[in-house]
Amino acid sequence: MIKITDLEKYYATEEVRTIALNKLSFQVQKGEFVAVMGPSGCGKSTLLNILGLLDDPDGGSFIFNGIEVAGFNERKRADLRKHNIGFVFQSFNLIDELTVFENVELPLIYTGVKPAERKARVDEVLEKMQIMHRRKHFPQQLSGGQQQRVAVARAVVNNPKLILADEPTGNLDSSNGNEVMDLLTELNEAGTTIIMVTHSEHDAKYSHRIIRMLDGQKVTENVLTEYKSNTLEV
Amino acid sequence: MLKNYIKIAWRNIKANRLFTVLNIVGLVVGLCVCIMLFSFVNTELSFDKMYTHSEDIYRVNMETSEEYNFETWAELPNAVGPAMVQDIPQVKKMTRLIKDDFGVTASLKIGDKNFTENGLYLADSTAFEMFDFNFIAGNAKNAFANPHAIVLSQSAKERFFGDKSALGEFITVNNRDTLQVSGVYTDLPKSSVIDCDMVYNIMDSWMGTNVYWSNASYETYVQLEPNAKVAQIETQATQLIDKYVHKEGKYFTQFNLQPLTKIHLYSADIREGYSTKLGSISTIKSLLFLSLLVLVIACINYMNLATANSRKRRKSIGVNKVLGASRKHMLSLFYVETGILVLISVVLAFALSFFILPVFKSFTGNALGYQDLLATPILIGLGLIWLVVTLFAGSYPAISMTNIAPLSLVNKSKKKHTASEFVRKGLVVFQFAASIVLIIAVTIIIQQMNFIKNKNLGYDPSGVVAVSVKSAENSQQVESLENALNRKAYVERIAAVQSLPGADESGRSVRRISTDNTGMPIASCRTEGNVIQTLKLNLLAGSELPQSLAKGDSIIYTLINEKILSYLNYKTPEDAVGKIINTELGSRAIITGVVANFNFNSLKEDSGGYMYYKSNVAPESIRTLLVRYTSQNLQQLVNDLEQTFNENLPNTAFDYTFVDKHVAQLYASEEKTARTATLFSVLAIFIACLGLFGLAAFMAEQRTKEIGVRKVLGASVAGVTRLLSKDFLKLVGIAFILASPFAYWIMSQWLQDFNYRTPIHWWVFGLAGLAAMVIAFVTISFQAIKAALAKPVKSLRTE
């Protein structure tokens, strides 16, 4: 599903050029659950931004679903993004002025889903995340765990092929954290590809494979569970 | 989708209270000003459009020759109208309009009561058809069927006769003509230059029957055939001059047709004319400019506050974009939000307009009614304002905020948005520059007004009251009144004159030698003497006019001013005394005395030649007693004057004017401009401060952490306040530097209108800059001190 080859990204200020990604290459198969680990500043977040089509690389190739997307402009990336990728953030990033229902509904609005269908789909996913009873609340009225469940609901409501999670349990206590990890595992088992950036060895153990990074490069790769994709699609 | 936008926008509006309140207050004030002024402008522009034949009615104006400085006059000889109807087929009708006694207030006697009246006209009966007179008693056709008939407006009728019928009643005008009421018409439209309160038949007077091409005192209106060629008729009318006027009598060279609907606003350069309802297109333009300026400042507030607020909104914009919102989606969202806020403001401003209308009226002197606010163009205009303000005020925030990249959400490092900060600072500079220009302008306008008020006019108008005696039944009455007043303790001096300075003098000309073709136009005023002492004129040589003249003395004694003296090429005033002076008054006029120039007209104009004369054979009559008094209690003075007047002129209405008030009246329009400009400046500064207040609040919030760190490291409250204020004060400083030259230029232009003007002092600029600085500092320091006083732990925790 994802194949990156010699991916490069620099951040330049007036005086120094920092290399965020240094000829990074790896593949992720459809249905796989991959954890990316490494110390702060190793390039994890930069990688996630590029994989999430929020940023473009300075060099190398990025093939998503068989298409080279490295040279896409913002409009094309946005289009690909809204139909294929769901995001889960450490700080949830729910919109404070919108209710739970409206937050989850947002991606459907932007992909042009009709109101009746939107309602059905939002209800379904809220039900699944067990926060249906909180649908009219605003984010500030929820606990951290509940907020992250809403964020996950929002990430999956469009049935994305790929979920990118940036330290999804970073702001949660351990029991809430476990709940979220269980949710992600369930989604993965149902067929969604997940790439998760984390500092937590505990969370990483939920994945099939851990990629460890340092200074913009891959240092090791541990396979925890051999994942056999039923397709050979790259 | 739209429902969704409205929902989100509404919640945003509710969530940011400070932002919303500041914005709405700013917009409401700005919009309210606009609504007021648009209503005012709308009524001004609608003048005289209500008549059935408005499109075909023109006033005939004439161009004078060099002798009268090529001025354009609205008053013509009474022969012009009849000649045009007779000789030019496309001229369908004409009416001449002239105020009784050339515009001097009339004294009316009705039963045993006396009234004064300013709107008494003589006209041809065609006026009724041309100006759609709507008779509620009598009718247009027969109104002037009988000789000595007069028709009244409804309000005049009510004033004189109350609820009783007026038809058939008698009115004595100026103790001269007795007229019988033959009709009552509904009051003429408020927005019409035709302001007749009462009309009698010009053909009952020598003014209508004695047709001549010399004296020009008659406003003449013509109604043309529909689609007539105006230029062609002007040419034909001008040809009448050669046909009917002798070579020596041609002091006018051309006739022009001025559309009726243009008279109200476009008559600033036209002299004479009787209407009291003249406006000025330049006033309209400057008011429009000022109101737009205030509105722009309010819009800038919105832009500033909205973009400052965008830091708060960054997260939600980022999330939306990550979730697939396009630029179009976000633009729509911001425009909907702006649209809602502006809509609320428009509605509030419109409602508020009704409350502050009386204040606006009394403050600026612009007459506006409630119904003017409900005029269709205003209601359409409101919608248009809503749209334009939404698009304009919403543009910059919408564009700058939708440019926020989705990445800014996940990027931990906060990129500084230097471009938007630069624009925001530019906008603050603009607001303050505009405010400073207004402060400077207002200060200079007020200085100029004071300069005029305090300028030595060459005579002393204060302490003099002018009492009209023009309707006295005979000269004995005037004499007995004068004697009675002379016995009063409060009366210092009395002069009997034709006119108070600058009101109803006669236009004459002085020639160097009697055979000169042209001379110098002057104002001449008949007097019975004592003018020097009564008006405190400055006598340079010679003496006051003689106290009494021997019977049979046919000499005309004159007092001239320096203007005439220098025209006549005398080296010193003394040289002129005793010499003969050539005027239309004949060859037996001599110069008795010379007085210093005095400003009998507005100080906008140079004071011209002026001549007082006394003669046994004076062609003009005595119309006014100028009474110099010592009394401090003016009410008592007026009461006593009235009583004495009524004892001596029992059949004449008591009419008086304080001369200093008459002088002030010359500057009424400037006074109005000054007050309006002051109002606008205060509002503009207020709105700019609202914006600054909001910006300072956001700035303080944004720098909370910095403030916390500084305080932990030992910064004082004063130090933090200084830190936060400094940036803004710098902007005000830049605004000052930009504003000063512009203000200097524009005020120099304005002062050009005055012949006598105050110098522009440098300290006015310093003062304006300082005022803006202080106002800005007070506004900011409230926020700055609040931020500085907060506990540092609290501020550090926010990150």
Automatic annotation (TrEMBL), chain A:
<keyword id="KW-0813">Transport</keyword>
<comment type="similarity">
    <text>Belongs to the ABC transporter superfamily. Macrolide exporter (TC 3.A.1.122) family.</text>
</comment>
<dbReference type="GO" id="GO:0098796">
    <property type="term" value="C:membrane protein complex"/>
</dbReference>
<keyword id="KW-0067">ATP-binding</keyword>
<dbReference type="InterPro" id="IPR003593">
    <property type="entry name" value="AAA+_ATPase"/>
</dbReference>
<feature type="domain" description="ABC transporter">
    <location>
        <begin position="2"/>
        <end position="234"/>
    </location>
</feature>
<dbReference type="InterPro" id="IPR003439">
    <property type="entry name" value="ABC_transporter-like_ATP-bd"/>
</dbReference>
<dbReference type="GO" id="GO:0016887">
    <property type="term" value="F:ATP hydrolysis activity"/>
</dbReference>
<dbReference type="InterPro" id="IPR017871">
    <property type="entry name" value="ABC_transporter-like_CS"/>
</dbReference>
<dbReference type="GO" id="GO:0022857">
    <property type="term" value="F:transmembrane transporter activity"/>
</dbReference>
<keyword id="KW-0547">Nucleotide-binding</keyword>
<dbReference type="GO" id="GO:0005524">
    <property type="term" value="F:ATP binding"/>
</dbReference>
<dbReference type="Pfam" id="PF00005">
    <property type="entry name" value="ABC_tran"/>
</dbReference>
<dbReference type="InterPro" id="IPR027417">
    <property type="entry name" value="P-loop_NTPase"/>
</dbReference>
<protein>
    <submittedName>
        <fullName>Putative ABC transport system ATP-binding protein</fullName>
    </submittedName>
</protein>
<keyword id="KW-1278">Translocase</keyword>
<dbReference type="InterPro" id="IPR017911">
    <property type="entry name" value="MacB-like_ATP-bd"/>
</dbReference>
UniProtKB/TrEMBL annotation, chain B:
<feature type="domain" description="ABC3 transporter permease C-terminal">
    <location>
        <begin position="679"/>
        <end position="787"/>
    </location>
</feature>
<feature type="transmembrane region" description="Helical">
    <location>
        <begin position="760"/>
        <end position="785"/>
    </location>
</feature>
<feature type="domain" description="ABC3 transporter permease C-terminal">
    <location>
        <begin position="289"/>
        <end position="405"/>
    </location>
</feature>
<dbReference type="InterPro" id="IPR025857">
    <property type="entry name" value="MacB_PCD"/>
</dbReference>
<keyword id="KW-0812">Transmembrane</keyword>
<feature type="transmembrane region" description="Helical">
    <location>
        <begin position="287"/>
        <end position="305"/>
    </location>
</feature>
<dbReference type="GO" id="GO:0005886">
    <property type="term" value="C:plasma membrane"/>
</dbReference>
<feature type="transmembrane region" description="Helical">
    <location>
        <begin position="333"/>
        <end position="357"/>
    </location>
</feature>
<dbReference type="InterPro" id="IPR003838">
    <property type="entry name" value="ABC3_permease_C"/>
</dbReference>
<feature type="transmembrane region" description="Helical">
    <location>
        <begin position="679"/>
        <end position="700"/>
    </location>
</feature>
<dbReference type="InterPro" id="IPR050250">
    <property type="entry name" value="Macrolide_Exporter_MacB"/>
</dbReference>
<protein>
    <submittedName>
        <fullName>Putative ABC transport system permease protein</fullName>
    </submittedName>
</protein>
<dbReference type="Pfam" id="PF12704">
    <property type="entry name" value="MacB_PCD"/>
</dbReference>
<keyword id="KW-1133">Transmembrane helix</keyword>
<keyword id="KW-0472">Membrane</keyword>
<feature type="domain" description="MacB-like periplasmic core">
    <location>
        <begin position="20"/>
        <end position="239"/>
    </location>
</feature>
<keyword id="KW-1003">Cell membrane</keyword>
<feature type="transmembrane region" description="Helical">
    <location>
        <begin position="377"/>
        <end position="405"/>
    </location>
</feature>
<dbReference type="GO" id="GO:0022857">
    <property type="term" value="F:transmembrane transporter activity"/>
</dbReference>
<feature type="transmembrane region" description="Helical">
    <location>
        <begin position="728"/>
        <end position="748"/>
    </location>
</feature>
<dbReference type="Pfam" id="PF02687">
    <property type="entry name" value="FtsX"/>
</dbReference>
<feature type="transmembrane region" description="Helical">
    <location>
        <begin position="21"/>
        <end position="41"/>
    </location>
</feature>
